[in-house]
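Notes for week 9. Today we move from apo structures to complexes. The key idea is that a small molecule is not decoration. When we ask for a structure prediction with coenzyme A present, the ligand SMILES becomes part of the input, just like the chain. The input block below holds both the sequence and the ligand string. Read it once before you look at the output, and try to guess where the molecule might sit.
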Amino acid sequence: MVTEVRPPRDDEMAAYYRALPFANGLPNWEPEDAAWHGGPEPWPPQRTPASEEQLKNWAATDIKDEAFHPIATFVDGRCVGASAAISFEVTVPGGRTGRMAGVTATGVIATHRRRGYLRQMMQAMFEAALERGEPLAMLSASEGSIYGRFGFSPATYRTRWELARHEATLLSAEADLGSLELVDAAQAKKVWPRVHAEVRAHRVGELKPLPGRWDGLSDAADGTNGPLRYLTHRDQHGNVDGIANFRLPWSPTTDHAGMLVVEALEAANPVAYRALWGLLIDFDLTKAVVAAGRPLDEPLRWMLTNPRAMRITRQTDNLWARLLDVPRALMQRSYQTSGELRFTISDDQMCPANNGTWHLTAGKSLSTCVPTDETADLTITISALSSLYFGGMSARHLAYAGHITSHTDDAIGQLARMLWTDCEPHNSFGF
Ligand SMILES: CC(C)(COP(=O)(O)OP(=O)(O)OC[C@H]1O[C@@H](n2cnc3c(N)ncnc32)[C@H](O)[C@@H]1OP(=O)(O)O)[C@@H](O)C(=O)NCCC(=O)NCCS
């Protein structure tokens, strides 16, 4: 048996897609979301597997795409496993952008699982990312028990909340001199990239969108979900500074009727943010608002007379992070407080250059991270450092759970003060 783990050649791309679950591999006779289907609704319509022509078209696009780096496992020439890294830019603490390998579309066919193929593909992707100068990898995990062993750990969360219209009133604030407007999809396509770019510059964890990110916006109805509607805000000078996508879905039950669903909302400043939410939470003829994929620390809660009106109904980890090149990653972000810390990493089997004791000297603008022979203040696992990197997790909790061992009285406090960010990291879309 000959096993090869390598990027697929151009003429192997169709086989590569077929190995991916839900593309054209297992279970290709089932609808896309079959594995997650758990509701009372009828079984979703059957999906048609991708045709040869579709596979060829995907290949033609992916081969040209310099940001797309596929990897595959071949056993005796047959493609049995696939994954890919996409080169992204992600906002790191301090507002700089860091280069990041976004791991996605991972699958090993059922008959070949648990033979170490994912581990080998991950190793190959890490090495290729390091060669491209990407000191960090991120992914979203289908199951929480898969990726910790590769050094990934949650870095951002997403929250779904609901709000009852009759309980939600905005606190009074200065009059908004700007204006709101309902626009069509063509206009929304123009507005989204501008607003997102402004927001991304300040939001730790946010990704630079891939080309075509908003091409699919449309005014057409999506079954019972109804059409997407677009609400924009202009400041007093006429510049668009906020946008929301929302739906008013049809519902077969009175329980869920009158629910306004906010699918996305971005605002470049608090005035636009308040104005957009102000209309959406008090939309005539609706009873409630639901918003998913939102950050943990939604400022809207603090704008309400009754903050309890907003109820979190679901919260899950979103992107997981993995530092591939610890010194480089730590030097590209900035720190809340200037300071020094010596830390030891000894558990990184996949990127062994990260093991050793490091001396981090952090300033707000310039930081260094170099190997040292000095005694460490603490020992930290690669996954804990990866979680803390974007500043949203608690160093104390990770220490409590045994991922960090302190060797001095204040080492955990110093780590927490240095890495913390005052705004929770968040990414508004995944990959
Ligand atoms: C998840 C998947 C890609 C793993 O591939 P694989 O080739 O079986 O993984 P490996 O054999 O390299 O396993 C590496 C390690 O992860 C563990 N592991 C793999 N999948 C796991 C899972 N779903 N749950 C828990 N542990 C898992 C293995 O036991 C092994 O552990 P070890 O290093 O302690 O021995 C494959 O099972 C799959 O395609 N699943 C369905 C689709 C899916 O979930 N894709 C992930 C999308 S994010």
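The CA atoms of residues 121 and 266 lie 36 Å apart.
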